[in-house]
Amino acid sequence: MIYGLFFGDSITYGEYDGVFGGWVDILKRYALQQFHEGSNELILFNLGIGGETTEGLLKRMPYEMEARNSAEGNIIFIGYGANDLAKKNGSYLVAPEQFEENMKIAVQHAKKYSNDIYLVSILPFSKKVDGVESATGKLRVNEDVLIYNQILTHIAAEQSLHYIDFYAALVRDKEILLSADGVHPNEKGYGIMAETAIPIIEKYL
What region holds the SGNH hydrolase-type esterase domain (predicted)? Predict the structure, then answer.
């Protein structure tokens, strides 16, 4: 059996989706259904943690992968940036240069266990939170999303990794695909993310 490991923040975890549990959980159910219908067994682990940045990822990633390493192969998904790019008291939680360095280290960790590595784009923010400080004192702007996504696409191209462009899938209709907080998708948004990702996991079924 092949393992799929999904590292990320609350958007990987599926926060704010009380219907389907988020895009990774939709994929988990799809893979299980396909297995019952005779496909290869693909076990998916949702390793998303709300509020996590790439700093937190680097602390736990080696241990998480060692604990979930399939001899038959692993697929690793890395989806970060929505928290890294948030500013608090005028400073990024993780500045662009450090974000790039952290992602490159994470990719090196992943390469010890897999040749199938997918970098996941950051989603756009709703206009109601774009440049507006939240109750927790965090400030997010869509211009930074473009900067951080550019870093991800550059790393993917440089290291011959796969890139999942959820940004492009949601940006046009973001105002109806994001939840009330303007950051997380709603069930429709997560559904579109899952539809985008299903062809990827089908290659391993």
Answer: 6-191
